[in-house]
Amino acid sequence: MSTQVQFPVRSGFYKTLRQRVRSELEQAGLSERDAWQMYAKTAFIVTLATVSYIQLVFVASTLTEALIWGFLLAQSHVMIGFDVMHDGGHGAYSRHRWVNAFMGHLLDLIGGNQRLWHFKHNIRHHTYTNIDGLDEDLETGGILRLSPGQPRKWWHRAQAWYAFPVYALLSLYWVFFSDFKEYLTRRVGQLPIDPPTMKDRLIFWGGKAFYFGYALVLPSFFHPFTHVLAAFVGIHVVLGFSLALVFQLAHTVEETDFPEPDAGAMPDEWAVHQLRTTADFARHNPLVSFYVGGLNFQVEHHLFSKICHVRYPRISRVVKETCQEYGVPYHESPSVLAAIRSHLRFLHTLGQPERA
């Protein structure tokens, strides 16, 4: 599909919404970025990552200890991705560009590459949300059918049963295959990306070398390599599953739409398109919000990606009320379990043959 997709001119809805959100934060004396809660949260997550790594590699001597510290290390990497890197990559962490860049590049320290993520996530996903052929998050090479516009294969009948194991392989796929493929081909899906600069090359290869060095090589001096490899895969299974599931619950559920362009023109303006293709879940669960970096407020994130996620609970009421006033959708599931059930029902429905 061509990337020459046009959204209609924005109406007064998004302008009004932005004004109301800005006013809500100003009246509460809150900045959009540089929140002390975010800095404290970052300190906690980085400390957890450091301590759990040291314990796993240099201290753990029993299987129980390895399981405990390996699980905590995996959780710290999940939260680095959800909470810290994600805000930094969107420019939502701080008003200072260098701070955002530093936080964004934490992705390189846990095996990914921030530059490639920017093309896939910021440019493609946030612009062309749920548009088949343009939103890279819908692409699984045919393993799963995540959009009505994708061809149905016979194995999709069972996709609701095997989807979770596939999700668990996501970060391994990124680290060992897709990052290298996209870097070398200079393409994200069908979209060409700019040639890497010397700085980009140093960050890519240096980041990969550093990651594999501390994740596989260094631990092998203290533990049998088979044990190291088992821990490495186990950490990635937790990481991949967590990352994939949260984003699927926000976009591939029964409530969300998958609009298609007509001669390159989309039916709704960009903001309304985001509302039709995105869903919140567990909005009133602070533990979920803390863990997933506010990505359970995915509606707010897609509309205001440059606002720090710790502000999403504050502005969500304004967003929902404005949507109701203008008669545009606001999708939400009351809990994580409800969102998972909706996602699985969606997968099951898409996997079945169409009735004549």
Which features would summarize this protein structure in a list?
356 residues, two-stranded parallel ribbon, 15 helices
N-to-C SSE string, H for helix and E for strand:
HHHHHHHHEEHHHEHHHEH
Whole-number tally of structural domains: 1
Fraction in beta strands: under 5%
Strand count, sense and barrel status of the largest sheet are: 2 strands, antiparallel
| Strand order of the biggest β-sheet | 1-2
Rg, Å, rounded: 21 Å
Shape: globular
Low-pLDDT stretches: none
- Secondary structure: number of strands: 4
Mean pLDDT, rounded to whole units?
93
In short:
With about 350 residues, the chain is an all-alpha fold. Helices cover about 60% and strands about 5% of the residues.
Kindly describe this structure.
With 356 residues, the chain is mainly alpha-helical. The chain has 15 helices and four strands. The strands form two sheets. It has a two-stranded antiparallel sheet with strand order 1-2. Strands 3-4 form a two-stranded parallel ribbon. The longest helix is centred in the N-terminal third of the chain and has 27 residues. The radius of gyration is 21 Å and the shape is globular.
How do the helices and strands line up, and which of them pair or pack?
Elements: H1 12-27, H2 36-59, H3 63-89, H4 97-104, H5 106-109, H6 114-127, H7 159-168, H8 170-185, E1 187-188, E2 191-192, H9 198-217, H10 225-251, H11 270-277, E3 279-281, H12 286-291, H13 298-303, H14 312-326, E4 331-333, H15 336-351
Parallel strand pairs: 3-4
Antiparallel strand pairs: 1-2
Helix pairs in contact: 1-14, 2-3, 3-4, 3-10, 7-10, 7-15, 10-15
